[in-house]
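stage 2 :: seqdesign
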């Protein structure tokens, strides 16, 4: 049962988002780390995001049966009951937000609540089943973790917070659309109006390009505003160009699934490398 309780929090997604929160905290701290505050940020962010993921599992339990990727989750298979999962998700959210509000600062708490609300109410309960805008607008919630970490230190939403938000907001759609291209028939069968299902794969590839390209000037602005050093500038531009070129080449790719798999892997490694260098090359 413990394994299932962990599984419905979507651990891979959770780790990625918590890592982003730590990155935002590190940038704002400029290497002067308040370890206790960082601990509360990590714990509060983890529980809040886990809450959203658990409730997402609860809400999608019937549609998950229709997809190969999700049909063996604890709810579709009956290993956990819906009422228990819903209660579990609510408790996680209450505890996580309480930590952010009371042990970090109210601004971080409100930002955490905003991210939770967009993911659970706007994305999961509304757009995921009704609109191709689900990925783009849902990206608001996915872009909040580094902002939470950043504002836990600064207690204000300044240019640094906005740039971190924009960075992760731009990263998400092409990342998830490359996955959607690979799983397009599964999403079609389940009834999810993902962009490649509704508008087609070619249109999806085209729409990915501006998001990936705009990541490059976003990273340049982080250097211009003095948040990171020259090493970050060089690495981020290099990685951004590699991802952008491969994304643009997708317009002529003959094997969509193979191209999308490579694009997805590049997106994951891009985020990991850029965030690690961002933390290492933060201006003290």
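stage 2 :: out
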């Amino acid at each position: 049962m413990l394994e299932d309780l962990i599984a419905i929090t979507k651990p891979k997604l959770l780790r990625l988002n918590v890592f982003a929160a730590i990155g935002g905290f590190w940038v704002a701290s400029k290497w002067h780390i308040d370890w206790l505050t960082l601990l509360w940020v990590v714990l509060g962010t983890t529980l809040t995001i886990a809450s959203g993921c658990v409730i997402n599992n609860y809400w999608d339990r019937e549609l998950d049966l229709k997809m190969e990727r999700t049909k063996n989750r604890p709810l579709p298979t009956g290993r956990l009951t819906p009422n228990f999962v819903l209660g579990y998700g609510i408790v996680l959210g209450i505890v996580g937000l309480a930590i952010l509000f009371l042990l970090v600062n109210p601004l971080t708490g409100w930002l955490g609540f905003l991210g939770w609300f967009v993911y659970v109410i706007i994305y999961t309960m509304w757009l995921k089943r009704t609109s191709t805008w689900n990925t783009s607008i849902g990206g608001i919630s996915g872009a909040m973790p580094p902002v939470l970490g950043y504002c836990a230190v600064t207690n204000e939403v300044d240019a640094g917070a906005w740039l971190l938000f924009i960075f992760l907001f731009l990263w998400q759609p092409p990342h998830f659309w490359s996955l959607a291209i690979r799983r397009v028939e599964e999403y079609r069968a389940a009834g999810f109006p993902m962009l490649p299902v509704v508008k087609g794969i070619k249109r999806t590839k085209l729409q990915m390009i501006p998001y990936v390209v705009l990541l490059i000037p976003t990273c340049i602005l982080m250097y211009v505003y003095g948040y990171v050093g020259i090493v970050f500038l060089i690495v981020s531009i290099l990685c951004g160009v590699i991802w952008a070129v491969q994304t643009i080449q997708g317009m002529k790719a003959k094997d969509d699934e193979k191209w999308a798999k490579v694009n997805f892997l590049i997106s994951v490694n891009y985020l990991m490398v850029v965030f690690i260098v961002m933390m290492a090359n933060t201006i003290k």
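stage 3 :: structure notes
- The longest helix spans residues 35-59.
- The two ends are 45 Å apart (CA to CA).
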